[in-house]
């Protein structure tokens, strides 16, 4: 298994994304958090989320993913009450068991996980455009250029309680990609798959960041690629 992670502030003044790639006895925690709120509050929210995930992972290994996301939500919510702020963050995270190839995925918001093998699977955004797709109001191909594609319907920290979407995947002979929307909003899924499959993780991450910037991304860009191919 080989992996690489990169985070760039892009055209923004500061980077409000945070990420983690942590190894604990053949268990790996990977996560990307995209902070919301501006004035450094977004950076604080994403940092809290990653910190809570790491603590839960260390305490409970693969049993800590959902607990970590819920605790992150509660901590950010409490900070908002104390500071009278409205910061929040998206989160996409997975715990990968290198021995069994089992991968547990959790997400809230529009930061995404992709699995590329013989097919293409991705998490389902909590966003306005995804709601429009689900209702049949627009087609999925229209979402990429939709003027309101940046509006999310769920994030950590804005409500006291939150439902966490959990998926279980087999990562054997797959390539996993986690990213913030600074990447996925500017590169089509099919092109993401081609680059992630064609290059080793470090080169693929660098090429994807450059491609997103060339395509007009004005957001922070964070990407993690995990190659589980034999």
Layout of secondary structure:
Blueprint: E1 2-8, E2 17-24, E3 27-36, H1 41-60, H2 65-83, E4 88-97, E5 102-108, E6 112-116, E7 120-122, H3 128-135, H4 140-143, E8 165-170, E9 175-179, H5 181-184, H6 189-198, H7 201-214, E10 221-227
Antiparallel strand pairs: 1-10, 2-3, 3-4, 4-5, 5-8, 6-7, 6-9, 9-10
In short:
With 230 residues, the chain is of the alpha+beta class.
Overview of the molecule:
The protein is 34% helix and 30% strand. By secondary structure, the chain is of the alpha+beta class. It has one domain (2-227): PPM-type phosphatase domain (Phosphatase 2c, domain 1, 4-Layer Sandwich). The strands form 2 sheets. A 5-stranded antiparallel β-sheet has the order 1-10-9-6-7. It has a 5-stranded antiparallel β-sheet with strand order 2-3-4-5-8, covered by helices on one side. Strand 4 and strand 5 form a beta hairpin. Helix 1 (41-60) packs antiparallel against helix 2 and helix 6 (189-198) runs antiparallel to helix 7. The chain starts with a strand and ends with a strand.
Helix content: 25-40%
Could you give the distance between the termini?
8 Å
CATH C-level class: Alpha Beta
Question: How are the strands of the largest sheet arranged?
Answer: 1-10-9-6-7
Give the averaged pLDDT, no decimals.
Answer: 94
CATH homologous superfamily designation: PPM-type phosphatase domain
Element order: H for helix, E for strand: EEEHHEEEEHHEEHHHE
The rough form would be described as globular
Query: How is the CATH topology named?
Result: Phosphatase 2c, domain 1
| SS element count, helices | 7
Largest sheet: 5 strands, antiparallel
- The whole-angstrom Rg is 16 Å
Strand content: 25-35%
- Classify the secondary structure makeup into a structural class: alpha+beta
User: What's the CATH architecture name?
Assistant: 4-Layer Sandwich
């Amino acid at each position: 298994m080989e992996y690489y992670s990169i985070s760039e502030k892009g055209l923004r003044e500061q980077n409000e994304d945070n990420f983690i790639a942590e190894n604990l006895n053949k268990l790996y925690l990977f996560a990307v958090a995209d902070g919301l709120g501006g004035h450094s509050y977004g950076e604080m929210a994403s940092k809290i989320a990653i910190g809570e995930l790491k603590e839960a992972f260390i305490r409970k290994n693969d049993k800590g993913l959902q607990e970590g996301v819920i605790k992150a939500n509660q901590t950010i919510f409490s900070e908002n009450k104390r500071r009278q702020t409205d910061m929040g963050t998206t989160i996409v995270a997975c715990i990968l068991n290198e021995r069994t190839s089992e991968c547990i995925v959790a997400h809230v918001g529009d930061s995404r996980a992709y699995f590329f093998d013989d097919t293409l699977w991705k998490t389902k955004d909590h966003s306005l455009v995804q709601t429009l797709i689900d209702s049949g109001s627009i087609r999925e191909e229209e979402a990429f250029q939709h003027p309101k594609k940046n509006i999310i319907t769920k994030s950590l920290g804005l409500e006291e309680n939150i439902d966490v979407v959990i998926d279980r995947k087999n990562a054997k002979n797959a390539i996993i990609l986690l990213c913030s929307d600074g990447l996925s909003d500017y590169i089509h899924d099919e092109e993401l798959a081609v680059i992630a499959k064609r290059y080793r993780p470090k080169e693929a991450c660098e090429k994807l960041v450059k491609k997103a910037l060339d395509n007009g991304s004005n957001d922070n860009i964070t990407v993690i690629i995990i190659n589980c191919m034999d």
